[in-house]
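B., you asked whether I could sanity-check this one before it goes into the benchmark set. Here's the sequence:
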Amino acid sequence: MTCKSKTTYSVTMQREGHAECEAESRQLLAEIAALRAQIDRLLANHPALGQEPPPLTADQWRALKGLYLSHGQKVALGRRASILMAEAGLTPSRQKQRAKTGAAGAVNVYPQAILAQAAAELGLCG
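And here's what the prediction gave me:
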């Protein structure tokens, strides 16, 4: 029996001794340190890994996720995302876009986590 849980810890201490539990703890700490070092190397070699994903419009997020949403659903997604941003005390950024007809306008862009939360609240994710 090894010290994998609190209930078996005291039994293990009595039967097999404290040394085995300490050895297991040292091994786990060494594995955690090795993983942290590997993560640090990855972040040093690939700085983009540590960054937040770029903000997207509701339609860009829909396309990224491979979802089909009607115009009304995209509008509802954007409205819900705006409400979530306001509740967090944030203001969505604006992105200029040109339509196929040549008309220009601006649309809100949101953090991807906000769009995912809004879609989940609206039941649009699946």
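One thing to flag: The radius of gyration is 25 Å. Otherwise nothing jumped out at me.
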